[in-house]
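Lecture notes, unit on protein representations.

Consider one protein chain, 507 amino acids long.
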Amino acid sequence: MYLSEKINFYILYYKIIFNKDQHLHKYFIIFFRKKQDRKEKFMEKSYTEEEIQILAKSAIGKTFGELSKMKVETISSPDYDKEEEKFNKAFFGHLFETNVYGYDINSTSAPDFLDAGIELKVTPYKKNKDNTLSAKERLVLNIINYMDEYKNEFYSSHFWFKNNKIQIIWYFYEPDKNKNDLRITRELLFSFPKEDLPIIINDWETIIDKIKNGKAHEISEADTMYLGACTKGANKNSVREQPFSTIKAMQRAFCLKTSYMTGLVRKYIGNYEDVERVLKNVGESFTDFVENVIKKYKGKTQKELMEEFNIDSNAKNLNGMLIARMFNVKSRLRDTDEFQKANIVPRTVRVEENGHIKESMPFPYFNYESFKTTEWEDSELKEELETTKYMFFVFKKKDDDYVFTGIKLWNMPELTLENEVKNMWNKTKNVVLSGNIVKKVDENGKRDTNFPGMSDNGVCHVRPHARDSKDTLSLPVADKLTGLTEYTKHCFWLNNKYLEEILKEFI
């Protein structure tokens, strides 16, 4: 870059930083393009925003097999059959890039359509057993450069430069279909809605703060609400240096969480009705809102809250109704816009007068057969714990009532997940697949199992979660001791003692 160009480049750059002027990005892109062109000629064509959308719409209704046969002049087109065998996730985007837009496959740090400032993403959605639609996976964005990203403010960040406008291409995923036959159904030129942007900015700042504090190795996808930092690499050895610690951190990429993408799928593809929002005012801070709820209701008893909200003590899901009214929503708190998009699960916890929590926290029951084909990395438990934030509403017993003492937003630490929880899951899998579930049966027919118990580690265990002993699921291997081919439903539980540790400030 010539000296005069360099001076103008940095003048514009600093204007973006200090004025947060998003419109200046287009001029920044021009200079970036000139610099890139001198380094590598990675794009042969240039499109306007309108042209990008026209071509995106032209692919709607086509299968990927049909796209692969399109005659487009490209520098290099991927071998569809070869990639199909591996089902490389990146391939769908590559195919769209080469055969719809005529671009060479590249891995530049700039948006795919540099002149227009638009990134291209191809992503699947699916139909659930209850016929609802949801995203199949998170939307992975750009790799986080720990050594550089922290130096910027949000509007001058590489994340914003690359992802402030995204051309989304959706295809419908059907597990029984050949990948050739998967069909493109919808396109959307996406910009972050004004009601979501404050949360996106706060999420970005949360990730950056961990980098600044030398804790990039402790980043978890569950740290944030909408914008996550997911692992991105071939294996656990895919690590990067971080600027404020000698500990190498897992390589991660910014991503829009599966729960957030599900919200987009339901709005733009499913045409679902708008759901109730917790934050009524655009720009309102979710953290500030929660703190105001705590200030308003902390110290009130359950009976006082029932009177204030005019809720009958015999009402079903009493606790759920109480916490919804505390947040001033009519629907279930779990069903509100922010809680769905952020995958926040509300839980009420009762602490006894002696400071102990009686009940452990259950997860949905697991399918014994799934252990045959599932490894820890792809397990439902791992996915839930690494992507879910839990909002604990704590009530402590006083006399004959329970007093609201506070709220804690919590997610499972990465180290705990990859040690205690992983070990417990692997032991459970081994017990099931070896046919060694039942250890002994007493004279009353009560079974003692080899499943991990509370004493095995301080975090989690396995025990029944069924209506009765007849509420069973099939086993992949018959139990050796009893010969049973079905067994009572079990689930994973967080130990009550572990919950006490999490919520110790309220106890």
